Structures are given as C-alpha cells and as structure tokens.
C-alpha cells in the first residue's frame, strides 16, 4: 500500500470514529462545553487562564475519580449512593492508621494508602455481593451502605477532624509534577485506565452486555453475577482513591467530607451520556460531564452568581440530561 493510500485509509478511519462519537452524543456534549467556555471567557476574561483551568481540574478531581467507577455501575443499570460516604470513610480510616505520624513517616503513609484502598474495595464488594448474588435492589443496598459508612466515619473520628499526614500520603493530593497538580494527574490516569478497561477488554464488553439485557447476557455465557459484583467493587476502589486525594489535598480528614458527592457523581455520569436504563455510556462522556460541572461552578462563581442559583442551575442541567435520556429510550421502544 502506498503512503498516499495509507494516509487516505487513516483519514477515513478517523472520520468514521468522529461520526460514531457524534452519533453517540459525545460530540454535541463537547460542543456545548466549548460554547459555554467561550461564553464565560467573554463574560469574564479571568476565566480563560491557565490558573483558572487548572483550578477547575483540581476542583473536579475527587468527583471525576469517583465517577469512573460510577460509570461502570450505571452502565449495568445499577446505582451507587454510597460513594460520598465511602470517600469520607476511607480518608478517615487512613487518618486513624497514620495517627501521630510525622511528615517523613513513609511506612505509615503507605499503610494509610493500603488500608484506605482495602476498605473501599471491601465496601464495594459488600455492595456487589448484595446486589449480584442476594439480588437486592441497588438503590436500597447502597443507601444502607451510605448510612453505615457515614456512621462508621463519625464513630471512628468521634466527630472530630484529623490533621497532619505523612508526605507519602499527602503527595497524591498536594504535590505537583512538572507544574501539574497531582489531583489532576491522578484523575486523568484513572480516566485513562477506565476508558481502556471499558472499551478494550472483555470485562468492559461484558459490562455493556449485562446493562443491555441481563438475561440475554446470561444465555450468551457471560457471568452476570461476577460482572455486577466487580463493577461495585471497582466503584468502591475509585471512591477510596478519591478519598485519598481529598484527604491529601486538605491534609486532613473531615467526618462530613464529600457530603452529597454521590449526587454530583451521578450527575456527571448522566450528563456525560450514560443511560440510567443501562447498556450505554462512555468514560469519555463522563469526563466531559465532570468538566462541564466544574466549568459551570467556577464560571458562575467568577461572574458573582449567588451560590444558591448555581445549585439551581446544576439541578436544571441534570434534569435536562435525564429528560433527554428518557426521550431517547422512548424513541428506541
């Protein structure tokens, strides 16, 4: 094949990928993000600066990391309301393990990281066990886990904030690498891993199959229970990573940390085009949804909009996303 023919083939392949993205809804979503950014930059020249854009990425990092696991759960037509409480619990458990440590206590810092990940994985596994094998309703299961995790966080901390962690722990939330803040780097890495896992692996294909039709997936030989279990466990792990980043960024663990985070995660996933009915979604769409929420928050703040109205506008965006998803589902029926 000549170089000209090869270039033409590459161009056609790229065009097909772009068309698929446009049809999937990611194209219009990205266009909306760009238009909002342009409008905000015109209204407030401070918006389109490196510091502001970096600040947006740092602010949405915790929601973004947790939203990766949430995307997998929602694609299987599940829901996870416990993510915010798990972010708080994992950060507090890590803080308890590292109590009394010095900034240079590398061993305790690593221990805190490992314990936080283990707690997140265990909580996610419990959610998955109840949903997959006990066949309990995901909403009720994760609502119960939300209450238990928050209560355990308060019990462990006695309602008090814990401060001062080893550098080996806070590095994931407070350090910079090549001028880029670590929360942003961690979020981008988690999104990249999530995208590859969802689109390029057998497990990812099974997640879509289970979300599309569990019975058909079972008849096709897909281990439905195991797939559902693993998605909830993955959500628990990403919640733990988000908890590590949040606690590291603040250098403290708050009993009330990440309160209401589960709603922001679900909002980002749904705005990103993942269907609440299951079987459809993407990590790229979730990333755009996360950034869109951050842009709206920071942009309206720069414009001096009352925070109450900001919350109202966020709710309106979520309502519009859910409405569009419902209309799309009806057209397919």
TrEMBL record:
Record has Transmembrane as a keyword: yes
Assigned keywords, A-Z: Cell membrane, Hydrolase, Membrane, Transmembrane, Transmembrane helix
A GO cellular component annotation in the UniProt record: plasma membrane
Assigned EC number: 3.6.3.17
Coiled-coil regions, chain positions: none
Localisation per UniProt entry: Cell membrane
Membrane topology: Multi-pass membrane protein
Cross-referenced CDD domains: TM_PBP1_transp_AraH_like
Record field: transmembrane: 25-44, 56-74, 81-99, 105-129, 136-157, 177-198, 227-247, 253-271, 283-302, 308-327
Pfam families listed in its UniProt record: BPD_transp_2
A single GO molecular function term of this UniProt record: hydrolase activity
Name of this protein: Monosaccharide-transporting ATPase
Organism of origin: Paraburkholderia graminis (strain ATCC 700544 / DSM 17151 / LMG 18924 / NCIMB 13744 / C4D1M)
Lineage, broadest ranks: Bacteria, Pseudomonadati, Pseudomonadota, Betaproteobacteria, Burkholderiales
């Amino acid at each position: 094949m000549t170089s000209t023919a090869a270039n033409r083939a590459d161009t056609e392949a790229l065009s097909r990928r772009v068309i698929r993205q446009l049809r999937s809804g990611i194209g219009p979503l990205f266009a909306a993000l760009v238009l909002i950014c342009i409008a905000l930059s015109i209204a407030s020249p401070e918006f389109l600066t490196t510091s502001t854009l970096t600040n947006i990425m740092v602010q949405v990092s915790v929601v973004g990391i947790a939203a990766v696991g949430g995307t997998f759960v929602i694609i299987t037509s599940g829901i996870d309301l416990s993510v915010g409480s798990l972010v708080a619990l994992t950060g507090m458990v890590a803080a308890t393990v590292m109590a009394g440590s010095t900034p240079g206590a590398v061993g305790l810092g690593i221990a805190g990281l490992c314990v936080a990940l283990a707690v997140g994985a265990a909580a996610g596994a419990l959610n998955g066990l109840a949903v997959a094998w006990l066949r309990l309703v995901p909403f009720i299961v994760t609502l119960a886990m939300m209450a238990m995790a928050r209560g355990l966080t308060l019990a462990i901390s006695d309602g008090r904030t814990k401060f001062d962690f080893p550098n080996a722990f806070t590095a994931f939330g407070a350090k910079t690498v090549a001028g880029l803040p670590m929360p942003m780097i961690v979020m981008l890495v988690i999104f990249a891993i999530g995208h590859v896992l969802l689109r390029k692996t057998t497990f990812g294909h099974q997640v879509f199959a289970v979300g599309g039709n569990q019975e058909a997936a079972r008849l096709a030989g897909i281990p439905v229970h195991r797939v559902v279990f693993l998605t909830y466990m993955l959500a628990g792990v990403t919640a733990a990573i988000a908890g590590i980043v949040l606690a590291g960024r603040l250098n403290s663990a708050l009993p009330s940390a990440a309160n209401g985070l589960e709603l922001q995660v679900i909002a980002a996933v749904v705005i990103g085009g993942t269907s609440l009915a299951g079987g459809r979604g993407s990590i790229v769409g979730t990333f755009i949804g996360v950034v869109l929420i951050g842009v709206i928050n920071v942009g309206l703040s720069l414009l001096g909009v009352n925070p109450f109205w900001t919350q109202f506008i966020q709710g309106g965006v979520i309502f519009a996303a859910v409405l569009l998803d419902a209309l799309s589902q009806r057209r397919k029926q």
